[in-house]
Automatic annotation (TrEMBL):
<feature type="transmembrane region" description="Helical">
    <location>
        <begin position="36"/>
        <end position="58"/>
    </location>
</feature>
<keyword id="KW-1133">Transmembrane helix</keyword>
<dbReference type="InterPro" id="IPR007436">
    <property type="entry name" value="DUF485"/>
</dbReference>
<keyword id="KW-0472">Membrane</keyword>
<protein>
    <submittedName>
        <fullName>DUF485 domain-containing protein</fullName>
    </submittedName>
</protein>
<dbReference type="Pfam" id="PF04341">
    <property type="entry name" value="DUF485"/>
</dbReference>
<feature type="transmembrane region" description="Helical">
    <location>
        <begin position="70"/>
        <end position="92"/>
    </location>
</feature>
<keyword id="KW-0812">Transmembrane</keyword>
Length: 128
């Protein structure tokens, strides 16, 4: 994953963080993150609240035995747990492929001074 600790000898006191946040690269990273997280979060919340509402208002359905002592509520509850793990694995895989490379490029530009040079060349700001 792209969470490698930066080396202790890198001085980041000169970084203009507001300029980094306003950069097109950082905005693209945020857009990519939001386009994945918000729809998945919405779907998970709908799934969770559907389970809760079924448990409250569809007691007869939820108590329907499927086999032995196992009923629909138990299967849907287990599906909630499985869904949580599946979404977590999906997020990690997506982050490794999309977020981490973008974040690493931004971090490398900041640490090597390329970002500050580009700002200075464009006259967009003064680093602190």
């Amino acid at each position: 994953m792209g969470n490698d600790a930066q080396s202790a000898d890198v001085d980041l006191s000169h970084v203009d963080y507001p300029a980094v946040q306003q950069s097109p690269e950082f905005q693209e990273l945020r857009r990519t993150h939001r386009s994945f997280v918000f729809p998945v979060l919405g779907a998970c919340l709908v799934w969770y609240f559907a389970y809760v509402l079924l448990a409250v208002y569809a007691v007869d359905f939820m108590s329907t035995r499927v086999f032995g002592s196992i009923n629909v509520a138990m299967l849907l509850g287990l599906a909630q747990v499985v869904t949580t793990f599946a979404v977590t694995m999906w997020y990690v895989r997506f982050a490794n492929r999309h977020f981490d490379p973008q974040a690493e490029r931004i971090r490398d530009e900041i640490e090597t001074g390329v970002f500050a040079e580009r700002l200075a060349a464009n006259g967009e700001g003064v680093t602190r």
